[in-house]
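I hope you will forgive my troubling you with a question about protein structure. Could you please explain, in whatever detail you think fit, how the structure tokens follow from the sequence? Thank you for your consideration; the sequence and its tokens are set out here.
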Amino acid sequence: MNAPKEAVIRMYAAREEIYPREAKGRYATLRWACVWLTQLLFYGLPWIGYNDRQAVLFDLGARKFHLFGLVLWPQDFIYLAALLIVCAYGLFLVTTVAGRVWCGFACPQTVYTELFLWIERRVEGARSARVRLDRQKWNLEKIAKKTAKHAAWLLVALWTGLTFVGYFTPVRFLMGEILAWNLGSWEVFWVLFYGFATYGNAGWLREQVCKYMCPYARFQSAMFDKDTLIVTYDGGRGEPRAAHGQAGRARSGDCIDCSLCVQVCPTGIDIRRGLQYECIGCAACLDACNGVMEKIGKPAGLIRYATENALAQGWSTAQVRRRLLRPRVLAYTAVLALLLAAMTASLALRVPLKVDVIRDRGSMGREVGEGWIENVYRLQLMNTSEAPRRLRLQVEGLPGVVIVDETVVALDGASTRALPVRVRIPPGAGKPGSNQIDFTITALDDAAVAVSEEAAFIVPR
């Protein structure tokens, strides 16, 4: 009796190499416009100066974030939280309306994959040439092309890493340190870390980041409904498929089964199988299919942005647009508008002066000459604007209360200063124990810049 043959069951399917064909059309142009816009901003912002410093600088050492004329401190963390919430609601709104257009056009993974694919095509050739090059044995031509491609990838990746670090360490100082071979260990680490992350994600992992690593692909379905715009294939119009001009075969569908929609897909899916979580909504298949329809004399839109309801009920474009303003979209829009309004108003009304009053616990209330009572405080003054200021210190709350030390102090722009202050009251001005007093700090050049802080004045029992 023959023994049963052993079957090998693989728990992980090996990755099949994807060679995306270059797509041309309206959406490819829009995608490249997003690439140019995002990268001009990313690579260019660190080199823009403002008030003798870098315009956008996240100075972690000094605990200051410079955004042109705005200076944010650790106490302003609420604005970062608000910004993240605004971005989240913005993403929810865009996804509800138009699916994963963020992924397909502006996501950093998509942007850098497009850049790296552009380099790959220029060095190794079109899709068929890249497939042929990878299948042939190693020779001088293959070594030269692969070396040139990876060298170009590494240059872009390292420049990206350098730019990223340039947002935290002034980029001109960073370049000077590199030229002098005097770069700090942390700067070296983060340049290499971010550079090789870019090289690995955009050059090697590519669609695997979108399919397996990105959490957005997993929970996007919670934001989709039957009126969400997605890249869809009109099966009613396209099926059954047959090669264009095939003789002797009756056919009613417009799809000629050219597979160009599959060849241009950066994640390697066939959109004709319906919506799949791997689809990033880049519309490359839409451009490819429209080009084919134009060549064979058929109307465009076999693959198009549409909704499930539009396909099922044959809605016109105007009907689809009317369904965009549905309750979910209106709710997200209202919340987003309120958040933006609140954040804008808070920034506009923000007083560029912060004060903390700390009573010196090592020096309790004490009696000085002629029965006066003295308390010592430390005022932590913070000027959050770029302009230097002269500040007037005042105290009130008890009869005859005065500041013994100087009452006008200077404070540089975007700086802090700890100031010891002695406060006295005349005999009998306060009850034994704790008494409330109020410090008021006012800018001499702008009376609207004023802050009041409470403090406790201790009278010995």
